[in-house]
Amino acid sequence: MSIPSDRKYTSSHEWVKADGDVLLVGITDSAQDQLGDLVFVGDVNPGTALSAGDMAGVVESVKAASDIYAPVDGEIVEFNEALNDNPDLINQAAFDTWIFKIKPNNSADVDGLLDADGYQAQVDAS
């Protein structure tokens, strides 16, 4: 599995990629592989202020449901509406499909997240 080095990662399997003054957030290929075929992505509420680690939404598959967490303190500004009708976009291309955008309170908080090598080491250890 190839882990893109152009973003940061959380230990709870979210990826984070800067897009101007907001961050795109999705789940990793490893996470979608463990979940299996996704049937629902949602419960993401734009306008909600979250702290790092707070539940930001949920992904459900035929096997399980899993919470998605805010990677940093900030406000959710957008949900990827394409996932309403096509949650399997994440199964097809996890690293190309963002779930929500968050405007961080402090963009430097991203620096505290895992880099690709750190995330790979975590996946290998589990």
TrEMBL record:
<dbReference type="Pfam" id="PF01597">
    <property type="entry name" value="GCV_H"/>
</dbReference>
<comment type="similarity">
    <text>Belongs to the GcvH family.</text>
</comment>
<feature type="domain" description="Lipoyl-binding">
    <location>
        <begin position="22"/>
        <end position="103"/>
    </location>
</feature>
<dbReference type="InterPro" id="IPR033753">
    <property type="entry name" value="GCV_H/Fam206"/>
</dbReference>
<comment type="function">
    <text>The glycine cleavage system catalyzes the degradation of glycine. The H protein shuttles the methylamine group of glycine from the P protein to the T protein.</text>
</comment>
<dbReference type="InterPro" id="IPR011053">
    <property type="entry name" value="Single_hybrid_motif"/>
</dbReference>
<dbReference type="InterPro" id="IPR017453">
    <property type="entry name" value="GCV_H_sub"/>
</dbReference>
<feature type="modified residue" description="N6-lipoyllysine">
    <location>
        <position position="63"/>
    </location>
</feature>
<dbReference type="InterPro" id="IPR000089">
    <property type="entry name" value="Biotin_lipoyl"/>
</dbReference>
<keyword id="KW-0450">Lipoyl</keyword>
<dbReference type="InterPro" id="IPR002930">
    <property type="entry name" value="GCV_H"/>
</dbReference>
<dbReference type="GO" id="GO:0009249">
    <property type="term" value="P:protein lipoylation"/>
</dbReference>
<dbReference type="GO" id="GO:0005829">
    <property type="term" value="C:cytosol"/>
</dbReference>
<comment type="subunit">
    <text>The glycine cleavage system is composed of four proteins: P, T, L and H.</text>
</comment>
<dbReference type="GO" id="GO:0019464">
    <property type="term" value="P:glycine decarboxylation via glycine cleavage system"/>
</dbReference>
<dbReference type="GO" id="GO:0005960">
    <property type="term" value="C:glycine cleavage complex"/>
</dbReference>
<protein>
    <recommendedName>
        <fullName>Glycine cleavage system H protein</fullName>
    </recommendedName>
</protein>
